[in-house]
Request: fold
Amino acid sequence: MGRIEGKVALISGTGGGQGRAAALRFAREGAKVFGCDLNAGAQQETLDLMQAEGLRMAGGGSVDLSDPVQASAWVEAAVAEFGCIDILYNNASAARFGSIADMSIDDWHYTLRNELDIVFFPTKYAWPHLAVRGGVIINISSVAAWGASTVTGIGAHSAAKAGVVAVTRQMAIEGIKSRIRAVSISPGVIATPGTLPFLANPATRSILLDGVPMERPGESDEVVATALFIASDEASYITGTDIVVDGGMLAL
Ligand SMILES: NC(=O)c1ccc[n+]([C@@H]2O[C@H](COP(=O)([O-])OP(=O)(O)OC[C@H]3O[C@@H](n4cnc5c(N)ncnc54)[C@H](O)[C@@H]3O)[C@@H](O)[C@H]2O)c1
Reply:
């Protein structure tokens, strides 16, 4: 028996680094995984990897979860496939960066849409299904929710991810009577396809890892292990909080 055997888990961004790792791990732990990604090719690669391991994932690309119509359709397709929802893992996101003075209005709205709306829309539509027999919402935030940067213009990213932490608290409180738990996770620097070019370059690597006491990036599997614990019944008394997975960065 896996740790989340038979649970229906909707995971967004399953074509990306952490989403792919989550799809694989959750399926290995017995979950019925329903994924999606904006990038249909990357989603197909994850499907191929899973099939090679004898694992299954339903759902496909290309789905844009920053569009409420597509978010609703994704949730309803999962319910049509599996009949219920036990876990909603809001992992997908995309951000644009720029200083307060230079960031365009378009980039600001793009980031809020693709980092905050993208959490709210699937949750809103999944809520009545999660409420049927209780469930878990896992929202991926970032250490950017907890601090500014002297190196990169993370204003929009930071605001959106702080919004993810804040809305998670409200989800947790509103979810109590329906036995829905909600927890956010704030990763630090994680080695994924998005960060790989920066981590491969010694100059940008040292900038990225400056202030990380463990002196290494985290792995997707280290974030997913935390999410798996939160998704499992072992975390039955944990709700409304944020869990930081950052190699000690915020401790400094
Ligand atoms: N990698 C890091 O260092 C790091 C640090 C802190 C937080 N995070 C967070 O972790 C989560 C996973 O990030 P990752 O590192 O795996 O990044 P990633 O870019 O590898 O994966 C994100 C995936 O989300 C998909 N996506 C983007 N916009 C979408 C949309 N509108 N609809 C559907 N899918 C969409 C992308 O196509 C991509 O496959 C994100 O929420 C990210 O903000 C990452």
Q: What stands out?
A: The mean pLDDT is 98. The CA atoms of residues 3 and 54 lie 18 Å apart.
